[in-house]
Design goal:
The structure is a single chain. Helix 4 links the parallel strand 9 and strand 10. By secondary structure, this protein is an alpha/beta fold. It has ten helices and 15 strands. Helix 3 runs parallel beside helix 4 and helix 5 runs parallel beside helix 6. It has a domain of 284 residues: Metal-dependent hydrolases (TIM Barrel, Alpha-Beta Barrel). Strands 1, 2, 3, 4, 5, 13, 14 and 15 form an eight-stranded mixed sheet that branches. Strands 6-7-8-9-10-11-12 form a seven-stranded parallel sheet. Bound molecules: zinc ion. Zinc ion (ZN) binds next to loops. The site of zinc ion has 6 residues, from loops.
Length: 441
């Protein structure tokens, strides 16, 4: 007969718990309280109004302390950041990353790129896919890309059920439906943060109106790529009437939808839209950033709310290149570094109502970019093949996602091999190193 195992008595349980507590506190007393300390960098954290030298400590994937001087002895790993800029992980508010379906000529296919190959090297930790998928194919996108990427991928649901698959598919008014889009956005609320309408070339307002209906129902913003410019639906009406406060106009410096008037001055409709609370996103891409438009708008006091890439197969090796190069272009146009960082961190976080992102407050997720500003002679190219010279260039030295290193091309966190035994083992520690010690996702 098998004797049934008796449970522990209350007394035994308490004794066990006490022993466990002693063991834990003994361990924590001998171990540093922080996993990682970024020492001596110039912190730019626009949400918290900081642009000043600060130490930043990280524990358990979160920002644990931001202080003038934190004792290095309190951290497991100390990374020297003097002369570098420490910023929240960058947020790229317009990318195309529904790769892998093998569909030719489609942003739900060959036109898209896998995010991790482009993000961390540019300081980006969060991207917003700008409507590659709609309600008919979003599940595939989530399963094959969003859930498998180390980059935080958020998404806009395309108002077109089939998503951004090109050609007639994106012109089909019958496949633009608020109801299933609303249901999709509710079901995937952790990752769907808005609705997209794009590339429409007809005279109707229906795509914008239906996208706004879906956005309204869920309480999320709509991003508009205004497609072809037609007299039946002028940009002034879009920005002044059709969009709601909080909706996003992307490709704001493209110039092909009358962002500039015939005399080269910015369309007053842009200012009227901003006055109402519409926000403006760069979405550089391969056809949507023109030096003359950006320069005239900035001169007239109309900077972008967010700087973003419109990353896709055709923009990545063209003038756009990357988030950090796009940011450098705005330095070349006279913006301050603090502004450029704000437009790539806290502003986009607010635009998509994800205010837990885009800053380094204590307790926030430790997504961090460490940047260097080079001075010299640099040339920058727009989507139309025109060059603008600049004297500053941002370079990404290190990126941390959830408190762990994911990009370090100069080995700033690494030890010289000659200081190690000849038979050295794999370096780094899981507490801070996400490159050599990857966590299973
Ligand atoms: Zn796009």
């Amino acid at each position: 007969m098998i004797e049934r195992k008796k449970g522990l008595s209350r007394r035994e349980l308490l004794a066990g718990a006490a022993a466990f507590t002693v063991a834990c506190s003994a361990r924590s007393a001998s171990e540093p309280e922080y996993d990682l300390l970024l020492k001596g960098g110039h912190l730019i954290d626009p949400r918290n109004g900081l642009s000043v030298v600060r130490d930043v400590a990280v524990h358990d994937g979160k920002v644990a302390a931001v202080e003038e001087a934190i004792d290095p002895g309190r951290a497991f790993k100390v990374v020297e950041c003097h002369g570098l800029y420490v910023t929240p992980g960058l947020i790229d508010l317009h990318v195309h990353v529904f790769a892998g379906t093998n569909e030719r000529g489609s942003y739900a296919g060959d036109n898209s790129l896998y995010p991790d190959a482009h993000t961390f090297r540019s300081g980006v930790t969060t991207v917003l896919d700008a409507g590659c998928a709609g309600w008919r194919n979003f599940e595939t996108f989530r399963e094959t890309v969003i859930s498998r990427s180390r980059t935080r991928v958020l998404a806009l649901a395309n108002i077109v059920g089939h998503g951004m698959r090109g050609g007639d598919i994106e012109q089909d008014l019958a496949d633009m439906e608020a109801a299933p889009t609303t249901a999709l956005a509710r079901e995937h609320s952790e990752v769907i943060v808005g609705v997209k309408t794009a590339h429409y070339a007809g005279p109707d307002w229906y795509p914008v109106e239906e996208a706004v209906r879906a956005g309204e129902a869920v309480g999320i913003p709509v991003m508009v790529d205004f497609g072809a410019s037609l007299p039946e639906r002028p940009i002034e009406t879009l920005l002044g009437e059709k969009l709601r406060p909080g909706d996003i106009y992307t490709h704001c410096f493209a110039g092909n939808r009358r962002e500039l008037l015939e005399d080269g001055t910015p369309n007053p409709g842009l200012f009227a839209g901003r006055e109402r609370g519409v926000t403006f996103d760069v979405g550089h891409g391969a056809g949507s950033f023109k030096w003359s438009v950006a320069a005239k708008c900035l001169e007239a006091g109309f900077p972008p709310d967010s700087i973003s890439t419109d990353l896709h197969f055709a923009s990545m090796n063209a003038g756009m290149e990357s988030q950090i190069t796009t940011m450098s272009k705005f330095l070349a146009l006279g913006e301050s570094l603090d502004d450029v960082i704000r437009q790539s961190t806290w502003n986009p976080a607010r635009q998509i109502l994800r205010e837990e992102l885009g800053h380094l407050s204590v307790g926030a997720t430790a997504d961090i970019a460490v940047l260097r500003k080079e001075t010299g002679e640099f040339g920058y190219v727009d989507s139309f093949g025109a060059r603008h010279d600049g004297t500053e260039k941002l370079v990404c030295e290190m990126t941390f996602k959830d408190g762990r290193l994911v990009w370090d091309p100069n080995g700033r966190t690494r030890q010289d091999w000659r200081e190690l035994p000849f038979d050295y083992e794999r370096q780094g520690e899981p507490r801070w190193d996400g490159i050599l010690h990857r966590q299973r996702s």
